[in-house]
Amino acid sequence: MFEEKKISIDIHGFRAIDAKIAIEDHIIECINQNYSQIRIVHGHGTGVLKKITEEVLSSSKFVKDFYPDHTFGVTIGNLIY
Asked: Does residue 9 sit in helix, strand or coil?
């Protein structure tokens, strides 16, 4: 049975600029590992980290689309190859 590869990063407690850099680095790492998805745990909080996550994913040429998981504290992105 085929199991889809996934990788996660947790950005709880990151400052905005550090979160942006971490997400960008995470995307590149996932591409280098040939993963089909990325998973970013940003939590609920004030929504700043979720907004940054969405901004980085929407502007990345490596991300096809993204969506919140069922808890809305995690955003999942599908990568383009």
From this structure: strand
